[in-house]
Design goal:
The chain is of the alpha/beta class. The protein has 2 domains: 19-165 and 290-354, 3-Layer(bba) Sandwich (FAD/NAD(P)-binding domain), CATH 3.50.50; 174-284, 3-Layer(bba) Sandwich (FAD/NAD(P)-binding domain). 26% of the residues lie in helices and 21% in strands. The protein has 9 helices and 15 strands. The protein has helices at 28-44, 65-76, 92-95, 111-124, 174-177, 186-189, 205-214, 234-242, 335-354, and strands at residues 55-61, 81-85, 128-131, 136-139, 144-148, 151-160, 182-183, 197-201, 220-224, 246-249, 253-258, 265-270, 273-278, 281-284, 321-323. The strands form 3 sheets. Strands 1, 2, 3, 4, 5, 6 and 15 form a 7-stranded mixed sheet that branches. Residues 4-50 have low confidence and may be disordered. The structure holds flavin-adenine dinucleotide (FAD).
Length: 364
């Protein structure tokens, strides 16, 4: 696939004679011609001449706040940067309808607008964005190729920033009402439910913690546990029991989330009976967010809980492959944190590409 829009400068740190750029060696004229062709290529971002494959310095999988910020930093550092994203509306921030807490953006804006602003800033520095779903990758220390359908992209470094919206939306009504009252993040959205009734669905630590958070704003929080008792740590259960706002129902299953344009209630089945509890928000923590990692085919080491293992520089178990954002399954899932990690991963990729292993303060 041809990728347009490259306006980046040639990076002084990349050697035009580097074999990674595959210049044919057939004498001085050929070399001069190849250098001119390569210069033109770098100015237009078109693939190098037939039979030669563009080698990207940084290929980012995912263009949410983590991926787009990584693109911004990598392109600004002068690297040939490509971000592949399957669809802005498929990411967590892309589907959030109201964002009020992204630093520097006052007022209430759709999450999509925040992503678009970061992407536009990254494009201004020469990053390319292509709308494609990455289906596979071949990752090793010496070579990295990312596959998107029939297209493939060769990269010197890869940043994984695919987020954690990998859980299938299994409750009827959930997919239609996500971002319209259905949420997976009380820290993000609890604020919008001041003096309203909401449901928090789940039985583990995360669900109870989030119920406690949303209880600061909501009038009433229905904590709906599918098991006969919450399977959370005793201190959290005790805090929930002491809250006057939280009402716990055990042994109940949410069968449907109801509402036309936004959440109006949840259908709950318990002991063979079904009733509708009127709520305007439904926070779901049934299986937790699941990092999107399938396309990696098990090539990167995972933690015990199935998350990518990274070091302090966000490098995965394969040198030159980094990860950022919600895909890392952090406790706090916020756009600003994902963006910060995108920046950090890009700085780490920069150091890897420059052969600088050590960490030094960088104020540029
Ligand atoms: C409903 C909701 C409301 C929220 N509200 C707030 C809020 O108010 N404030 C706040 O700070 N945070 C909020 N968050 C959390 C915030 O959106 C996330 O923490 C943040 O978006 C994580 O960024 P990310 O880039 O890691 O992942 P994402 O934003 O999920 O982006 C991942 C990107 O990767 C792409 N992708 C995934 N798989 C592939 C693939 N195979 N190939 C190509 N592309 C792929 C997706 O299309 C997506 O664009 C909210 C989240 C949700 C779900």
């Amino acid at each position: 696939m041809s990728v347009g829009g490259w306006r980046g400068r040639f990076n002084g740190r990349s050697d035009p004679g580097d074999e990674r750029y595959r210049i044919p060696v057939i004498g001085v004229r050929a070399v001069l011609f190849a250098i001119m062709a390569m210069k033109a290529d770098l100015e237009t971002n078109e693939a190098t001449s037939e039979g030669q494959e563009t080698v990207w310095d940084v290929v980012i999988v995912g263009g949410g706040p983590a991926g787009a910020t990584a693109a911004l930093y990598a392109a600004r550092a002068g690297w040939r940067t490509l971000a592949l994203d399957k669809g802005i509306g498929a990411g967590a921030l892309g589907m959030a309808t109201r964002i009020t807490n992204y630093p520097g953006i006052a007022g209430t804006v759709p999450g999509m607008e925040v992503v678009e602003r970061i992407r536009s800033q990254a494009s201004g520095f020469g990053a390319s964005f292509v709308s494609q779903r990455v289906t596979a990758a071949a990752l090793s220390e010496t070579s990295k190729t990312v596959y998107a359908g029939r297209d493939s992209y060769v990269a010197r470094t890869v940043i994984v920033a695919t987020g954690s919206m990998g859980r299938s939306q299994s409750i009827p009504g959930e997919a239609e009402l996500t971002g319209r009252g259905v949420s997976y993040c009380a820290t993000c959205d609890g604020f919008f439910f001041r003096d309203q009734d909401v449901a928090v669905v789940g039985n583990r630590d995360e669900a109870i913690e989030e119920a406690l958070h949303v209880a600061r704003f909501a009038r009433r929080v229905w904590l709906l546990c599918p098991t006969s008792r919450p399977l959370a740590s005793p201190d959290l259960i005790e805090q929930a029991e002491q809250s006057e706002v939280i009402h716990t129902r055990t042994g109940c299953n949410v069968r449907k989330i109801v509402g036309e344009r936004s959440v109006e209630g949840v259908d709950v089945e318990s002991g063979g009976k079904t009733e509708t509890i009127p709520v305007t928000g439904a926070f779901l923590y049934l299986q937790g967010g699941q990092p999107i990692l399938e396309f990696l085919g098990g090539q990167l080491a995972l933690t015990d809980s199935g998350c990518l293992q990274v070091d302090a520089m966000l490098q995965t178990s394969v040198p030159g492959v980094f990860a950022a954002g919600d895909v890392l399954c952090k406790h706090v899932k916020q756009a600003v944190i994902a963006a910060a990690e995108g920046a950090q991963a890009a700085v780490a990729a920069d150091r890897y590409l420059s052969g600088r292993a050590s960490l030094k303060p960088d104020w540029s």
